[in-house]
Amino acid sequence: MEHENPTNFLKRPYAGPVRQRRARTQRKPSFPITLPLRNYLRNYAREHSLPIKYRQLERFLTSAPLYDANGDDTLWETLIYEPFIMRQLSNGLKKIYAILKAGGDLSVMQHLYVDRIDYCVFGNSKPFRIRIVNSHNDNQDYFYIKTADASRVYGLELEHLLSPNRMFFLTDGDTLVEEHIVGLPGDIFIDHWLESKRLRPIRVAKELVKFNERCFVRLLGDMRHYNFIVDITPDFEETQIRIRSMDFDRQSYDGRKTFYLPQFFKENNTLVQFCVSHIDTKTAHQYQREEHALIARRMDIIDLRLKALLAAMASDDLAPRKNLLQLRSELAEHYESDSFLRCDSMGELVSHSLNHMRDKARGR
């Protein structure tokens, strides 16, 4: 298969600064949460009554650009509210944090305060980022409030079920609350950590191959280096890394097969070239098979829950018809299986892709 050959990583060169491209990226439309998905979220404790909704955070007076420690524009803006509105928001946001982190135990709120509310106009979900600070030790944490786009919700839940990562999020009507995902943004990792002697190149290469597979079989798109993070964990002998998604807006939307393969984005080319120089085809195939076996095992463990999610997804309209027709045609050619041509929704394509992968992993 084409994506199994690591030499394909070299097909596209790197070009251009990322910040300019972000502003020009065409926005994907937001899809509402339909009744089948809402029922799924209620059944699996993802739906919760929240004291603050997305629209309430839009009542700010003004904003100021937020710069990082180096003086670079972060593309986030810090918001300023009327004092009485800020007091209302602070109490509600602390309650949301308690629900997200402590199962609703409000006693954790006593020593917390909302230090800052930021807003990003470039994301599809136009997220608000809430910074919570512990007054006892100045420890800080973040969470996000976004518009509840069905594509993103499906992406978050598929990540939770099929990847090694757990995702904590809640919905309430048209509001989505997400926990902060800790790690180095991919572009920063590439610029400052890729050549670090603390990391073994083969471990980086292995993780890129496995990440590439996870995205492709569940059709998570647009994994450019600013849409994933790298989690670096010191181990007793060597440092481990894991690449994980932090943006799920383009779950099963695009019609191009390559859009679901991180290896083909020019923004990732530096990382891809580094990995190709440290791994051979046989080893890459081994890592692919390992990841397929792990995903298949997870599918077996959460079989009923996954089927419920995919049934809701199959009934949803998550992409233009032309995208569906293009993607199912390209997947049929890729896998040399006309069975993909019978899929009539993006949800059905995801389900068929996962089942096809599981059958192959088991030698069927």
Question: How would you portray this structure in words?
Answer:
The protein has 364 residues and is of the alpha+beta class. It has 2 domains: 2-22 and 183-361, no CATH class; 33-179, no CATH class. It contains 11 helices and 10 strands. The protein has helices at 18-24, 35-43, 83-102, 150-162, 186-192, 201-217, 269-276, 281-301, 303-314, 321-335, 346-361, and strands at residues 62-67, 73-80, 112-119, 128-134, 140-147, 169-172, 175-179, 184-185, 228-234, 239-245. The strands form 2 sheets. A 7-stranded antiparallel beta sheet has the order 1-2-3-4-5-7-6, covered by helices on one side. Strands 8-9-10 form a 3-stranded antiparallel beta sheet. Strand 3 (112-119) and strand 4 form a beta hairpin. The longest helix is centred in the last third of the chain and has 21 residues, at 281-301. It is globular and about 60 Å long. The model is unreliable at 9-25 (pLDDT under 50).
